[in-house]
Structures are given as structure tokens and as C-alpha cells.
Amino acid sequence: MIRCDTIAEVDEVWARVRRCFEVGALAAGTTVDFTTQPSLYREFRHDPDLAALFETHAKTVGRTFPDYPDKLFGSTDMGNVSQVIPALHPMLSFDLPAEDGNHTAAFAAAAGGAEGDRFVRDGGLAMALTIADVARSAPIRARLTASGN
């Protein structure tokens, strides 16, 4: 599986990966056959208004946002949804060292304890406040409900 920020990048990387397999097969004196499947997950497009509102509210309840580039950390079918309608896929983080990111025992311990409970409360509150702001803002609401993204 190849993961990139955009489908165009997946296609570009696949061409290089395919050549690696072809050269490896040639070096081993054999052949290689490929069966490919289309890329299922499209890149995610954060709605700028929703993202800014959520970040403001999350910061208000004490969350910080590391200076990450605007990239998705993994694959999600939510990217497909975001190509059609305005969307938000917020991410909050635990105060853990980088080596204790997702899918580690330290992350599981943090998520299963008091910090995990605070995470859910903070995220839910920030999202609820974001929705309330959208409900109160006629211009944002009009843009979000207009056809297309």
C-alpha cells in the first residue's frame, strides 16, 4: 500500500515502486505480474472556517496544536466525503513524546485513563461550540449549505 498526501502523488510513487519490482525481478531472473486496485481514499480537504473555529474553541479549553503541516495522518474515507461537502476532521493530541504516538502502549494507557476522558470532553465541547458558531453565522452557514465544496 502506498500512502501520500494526494492521489496524484500516489500515482507518481506507484510508478517508481513498480519499476523497483520490475528491476528486482530482472535481477532475480524471474518476472513479476501486477494487479492493482484503484486508490480508495481521496485526500482530505479541511474546511477553513470549520477548522479555524474548532481550533479556537479547543485552545479555549486548554488544548494545544503542534506546528504540523496541514496533512492527514493516515487514511480515511472521510477524505472522500470532504471532496463533496465541507468537512472537518479535527485531531487532538496527548502530551506524549513523539515516540509514544498512536498505536503504542503509552498512547493506549493515556487514552484509557483520565487524560483520555479529558480528551473526549474537550473534543466534544470544542465541536459543539464550533457547531453553535456555524448556526449563529449566516454567511458561514450559507456557504456550507451551498451546493459543492
Explain this structure to me?
This protein has 6 helices and no strands. The chain has 2 domains: 39 residues, no CATH class; 98 residues. The chain is flat and about 65 Å long. The model has no long low-confidence stretch (mean pLDDT 86). The protein is mainly α and 149 residues long.
Give the SSE layout:
Blueprint: H1 7-28, H2 48-60, H3 78-82, H4 105-111, H5 114-136, H6 138-145
Helix pairs in contact: 2-5
Rounded to an integer in angstroms, the radius of gyration calculated over CA atoms is 20 Å
Helix content: 40-55%
| Total beta strand runs | 0
Order of helices and strands: HHHHHH
The number of domains: 2
- Output the structural class: mainly alpha
* Spatial gap, N to C terminus: 29 Å
Largest sheet: none
Q: What is the count of DSSP helices, taking H or I runs of 4+ residues?
A: 6
Average of pLDDT: 86
The low-confidence parts are none
Instruction: Classify the beta-strand content into a percent band.
Output: under 5%
Shape: flat
List keywords for this structure.
2 domains, 149 residues, mainly alpha, flat, 6 helices
What would you say about this model in short?
It is built from six helices and no strands.
